[in-house]
Structure formats: structure tokens, C-alpha cells
Amino acid sequence: MAREASTTSIRVAARLANGFALDLVKLGGFGRDVIDGLLMVAISQANIAQITRNPELQLTYATLDQPPPDELRRPVSISALANSLRIPFETTRRRVTSLIDAGIVRTGQRGVIIPTAPLTSPFYRMGVEANYNLVRNLYLRLRGIGLFEDLPRPIRAPFDPEHPPVRLVIRHSSDYLLRLAEPVTLYMGDLVTGLLLMDMIQANTEHLADSEGGADDPAWSPEGFVPDSQRRPVRATTLAERLGIAPETVRRHIQRLVESDRCERNEDGYVVPARVLARKPFVQFMVDNQSHLHRLYAALGDFGVLTEWEREILALRGAA
Questions:
Q1: Where exactly are the structural domains of the chain?
Q2: pTM attached to this predicted model
């Protein structure tokens, strides 16, 4: 279990993880919008569930040049996808059909899979390498705020730096991402509204340094958060561009957020203020996120990933 962290560290970790999760969704979509991106992550993870549960298979199919073969991929039904992401069945069916038409997803009697072929393309390889770097960079930043001082010692030797376990890292980071889907819909509304609210919070705060997390305040009062004067408003058109969602859809969901008092509008755009972030559902989301991050990186530590990253840090320090 993760050691109790200060509210300041938890807020900064949540802010960093928020941007990280959004980047993962965007990378997972082959250039499509964030909902398709999350669907594709869910399909892929369901297809390879037996690999993620088996440490030896994890290592066998760990590197970029070792994709799991199609015979190891298990189909997933559209209803199972809709239930897992809390997306309406008809919306899921329509979007999956579009992915099938694009040649990204293959369908069969028992459901759909993402076959090996698209997962070996140059475009995909660029995306997964970016994903790997996102996971590594988030670890370094979270380590910098003291969040991982209590991670268990790794039990495996470090990986070969010439053949990094890119696919293994992506499987674990995808599990982390999917663990967020349920609380996003639970605390923030439907999935589209939740992703939109996450990106609004990200746009408001992505300029802040990792040292800016407000005051350590066990009561989680609004006064303990970063002041609203430091939050940068974002326009609806900018959010539409960032998420790849139609502007009219974004405006409709933002109107719901305004009416439910989960964001405010001013002359420069939209802001999620501290008084909203200090509400119990959002605080619980941030606290739960700390545990999810700990679980992600503890799992990577078990496979020697963190050992090699730490060696890289020491090498850089020595070169300096």
C-alpha cells in the first residue's frame, strides 16, 4: 500500500497524471478522436488479457519487435466494451463499425480484435515509442515530487537497454488508463463530458511548475488549492481541437458542465475553479489516482523497468 502523501503532492500528481492520461488516449486512437482512442485501448487490452495476467507471457511479448500473435488475442463483444467504458451500446456499435471499415479492427462471431498487422506499422511504432516515453517521463516527474519513495524493491534484473520492453510498458499503462474510465464517468458525468472536463482542467493548469501544488491542507479546502488567478481559461474551440471532437458537441457538453456548476465561464474562456476541485468526488478521484499510479509503477518495478530507468538517471548525473 502506498504511503500517505501530502495533499500538495497528491494534487500535483493528479495534475500530471491528468495530462498523461489524455496523451495516452490521443496516442491510442491512430489519429482519431479521444473516444475512439479509448475504445481502441479497451479492445486491445481485452484481446490480450491472458498475456497481462501471465508474467512469462508479458516478458515473451515485451519488446517492440515481439507483438503477440493473432492466435493469442481473444475477441471482445461490443456489449462488453460498452459496459466497461459506460458508453451507450449504440454509440459503441457505431464507432466500432467505423473502426472495422477503416481496417483497424477485425470482427468475428465472438467479437472484435485488433489484429497484429496494424500493431506493427511504422505509424503505430512511432506512437508506442511516444507512449513509452510518456510513462518514463511521468515516473521521473512523480519521483521528483517524492511520490515513490516507498515503492517495493524490484525483484528482477534491469531490462536490456538495447531492447526496451515497450509493449510491456504500454500494456501496464493501458490498464492504468482503463482503471480511470469508471471514476471519470462516476465523478464527472458521461465519458465525453468527463474527458472534456479533464482536458479543461489540463488546459487551465498545464503551465504550472511541478512545485506549484498549493498548500498542504488535510481538510482539502478550496483555499489550499492553487489560486484561481493562476488558472488560464480555455475556449471551447481550443478544447474541440485538442480532443478531436466536433465543436458543436463540445459546446453542448460544456453547457451541461456550466449548468451543473462544474466549470465557470469568463470573458477569456472556461475555468474549473478551486471550489469545484475541492468537492468530495474530485478529492476522492485524486486520492484514488495516487493508488493507481503506485500500482502502475510497482508493476513496472517488478519487471526491472524502474531499475533501468534509475540507472539512466545515475548515468546522466555522472555525465553532468
A1: 7-319
A2: 0.90
